[in-house]
Design a protein that fits this description.
Elements (H helix, E strand, L loop, with lengths): L17 H12 L13 E2 L4 H18 L3 E2 L3 H10 L10 H11 L5 H12 L3 H7 L17 H15 L7 E5 L5 H10 L2 E6 L2 H12 L4 E5 L9 E7 L10 H11 E14 L8 H6 L9 H8 L4 E7 L2 H45 L3 E9 L12
Parallel strand pairs: 3-4, 3-6, 4-5, 6-7
Antiparallel strand pairs: 1-2, 7-9, 8-9
Length: 386
């Protein structure tokens, strides 16, 4: 291990403190320096950053970044190095015990609480998201296999889903967590299907009226997924399962099964994590996606047991890195339009969100799965599409 040598103590760094030296030495293992001159090095501007990170983990680190107490020119590369070196496993902030107990004991995604993420995140404003996302307003991972631009990657993802579902003209499709309707619009335009979308965001439902006015056969329902009972030829859920919570995974699968015709197909597109004994990041939970929770592949399979046959699993989590970096580019390019409305603290919060998540996906700490499922198994087998 490289030896810790500091020509000049960074702001708030106490060389006599064993915990401060411990953190500095850990960072060296990830090739990160305090007050170094490389784009991923941490620049300390105020005291308390190290102690806050030690006691509160990413919640403390993120909040101190939002206050301007530290910087890193390339936050994405900083988090890639932190995650790839698995430094988080060496630090166990005491406050994480609280989040772990809360996650295990409480159902934080009840019908009442489910609306919170819509109000706090997805209702920030359609204009804001239109400036950050692709032209179809698709707020999920793009498919970059043959794509050069964000628009191309998102259309490739939407077409991939349509082909995996074997959509045919006249079919009726249920989209659980439909967002701004990008999948429904694409499927209706290119595959001649009718779509019903469920959302808990008023802004998204209002935006959906534009698609309806264009004459597309799509319907937006402002309701919780648990209240849906109609049956469809196909069911899809793209980037919504992360808001369901482990106590509701089985109920979610039960609803999908109930709403799918016996010969239908169900596609689930979700971010997932590698380890089941981890809790939701407290900073993400507080500032970005309240009450969210990433599943493991095992948890998805357990929830689907006796309800679905898993026909196909496709992981293209590395593509989320490129998607997030494209969103960040658009966010930075259009920030001047929104800075007076949202302010500097929001700017730093959103930058931390996009770039830290890009780094985590780059390190392959979290994944992006698409699972195709049938109720009884496709006779003769399902033909894989990628």
């Amino acid at each position: 291990m490289n030896q810790l040598t500091l020509d000049k103590s960074p702001v708030g760094f106490d060389e006599a403190s064993p915990s401060h030296r411990f953190i500095a030495e850990l960072l060296i293992q990830a090739d990160i320096q305090l007050d170094g001159d490389r784009p991923w090095d941490i620049q300390l501007h105020a005291p308390g950053v190290i102690d806050s990170a030690l006691s509160r983990g990413n919640l403390g680190l993120g909040e101190s970044y939002m206050k301007g107490d530290w910087d890193a020119e390339h936050l994405d590369e900083l988090f890639y190095r932190l995650m790839r070196a698995q430094l988080g496993q060496r630090i166990k902030p005491t406050q994480l015990m609280y989040y772990s107990l809360r996650s295990r004991l409480l159902n934080r995604q009840t019908v009442k609480r489910a609306w919170e993420v819509g109000e706090k995140h997805y209702d920030l404003g359609n204009d804001f998201y239109a400036a950050m996302l692709d032209q179809r307003m698709t707020y999920t991972c793009g498919y970059w296999k043959d794509a050069k631009t964000l628009d191309d990657a998102q259309e490739a993802k939407l077409d991939l889903i349509c082909r995996k579902l074997s959509l045919k003209p006249g079919m009726r499709v249920l989209d659980i967590g439909c967002g701004w309707g990008s999948f429904m619009a694409y499927a209706a335009e290119h595959y001649g299907v009718e779509c019903v979308g469920l959302t808990i965001s008023k802004e998204q439902a209002e935006f959906g009226q534009r698609l309806i006015k264009k004459g597309l056969p799509v319907e937006f329902r402002l309701q919780d997924y648990r209240n849906e009972n109609e049956r469809f030829d196909r069911v899809v859920s793209i980037g919504m399962f992360e808001h369901v919570g482990h106590k509701n995974y089985r109920e979610f699968m039960t609803v999908a099964n109930r709403c799918l015709k016996d010969d239908g197909l169900f596609l689930l597109h979700t971010i997932g994590k590698n380890l089941s004994n981890t809790v939701t990041d407290p900073w993400i939970d507080k500032y970005i996606f309240p009450n969210g929770e990433l599943p493991t592949l095992g948890q998805v399979a357990d929830a689907a047991e006796a309800l679905f046959v898993v026909e196909d699993v496709h992981n293209f989590g590395a593509d989320y890195d490129r998607t997030l970096m494209a969103w960040h580019h658009n966010f930075e390019s259009n920030w001047a339009t929104f800075k007076h409305q949202y302010g500097e603290r929001f700017y730093r919060m959103w930058r931390y969100y996009l770039l830290s998540c890009a780094g985590v996906f780059r390190a392959r700490e979290i994944q992006l799965w698409q699972l195709v499922m049938s109720k009884q198994g496709v006779v003769g087998g399902y033909s894989r599409i990628s």
